[in-house]
Amino acid sequence: MATDEAAHVAWRVRTLSPSFSRASSSSLDTALVEEFARLERRIFPKHESLSSSFSQEVKKRNQTMLYVLIGDVVKGEGDTEETADPAKVAGYLMYSWTSLAASITKLAVRETCRKQGYGEALIDAAVQQIRDRRLQCVNLHVDPARSAAVALYKKKGFYVETTIKSYYAADRDAYRMVLQLISPENQ
Ligand SMILES: CC(C)(COP(=O)(O)OP(=O)(O)OC[C@H]1O[C@@H](n2cnc3c(N)ncnc32)[C@H](O)[C@@H]1OP(=O)(O)O)[C@@H](O)C(=O)NCCC(=O)NCCS
């Protein structure tokens, strides 16, 4: 758990309950997904945004949603009270997987929360879960103009495998980036 400057306030990466896909999903989970969609609408241009289909996307099988809430409250040693306020979403990451590989399909951090380590913590948590599934690699697509994201992925060990011309639009290419977890010869 990461600790902010006040010793009693901390945050951690959480995983959206897999039961969100069932009709009985909690009102907190529903409110969280609405907040992800609101951030998505604000951060990404329309053609890149999942906002209108967010609740459908997170219900898909083999899809995991991670998120961070600002200021989970820690009252004392072993006595943790967590916030349940969706307005406190600092960022989210979505990934999907097959039997061999995982893909990070979304990553965003609220504008006012950037450069505080949330993006890196979301990637670390996703990569750990993907390692635990014993998958070979993680891949993603990113617009080379998104320099903060490209720098973050490189810091976490991803490399540019190829550039895909006109991936997002006629004049917008994509890097396909890969993080190798298990070398194929060790399979
Ligand atoms: C990319 C993004 C998720 C980074 O989140 P963040 O929480 O600000 O990142 P962190 O604070 O964890 O930064 C970790 C590393 O990322 C890189 N980084 C983050 N912001 C950066 C910036 N503005 N410029 C250059 N490098 C940056 C640095 O390597 C940084 O490590 P450092 O602090 O040791 O220098 C965030 O800027 C964002 O949401 N951008 C808009 C959406 C987007 O582009 N998503 C990716 C789509 S594929």
From TrEMBL:
Membrane-spanning intervals of the chain: none
InterPro entries registered for this protein in UniProt: Acyl_CoA_acyltransferase, GNAT_dom
Signal peptide: none
MF-aspect GO terms: acyltransferase activity, transferring groups other than amino-acyl groups
Superkingdom, taxonomy of origin: Eukaryota
Domain N-acetyltransferase: 23-182
Protein name: N-acetyltransferase domain-containing protein
Gene, per the UniProt record: LOC112276453
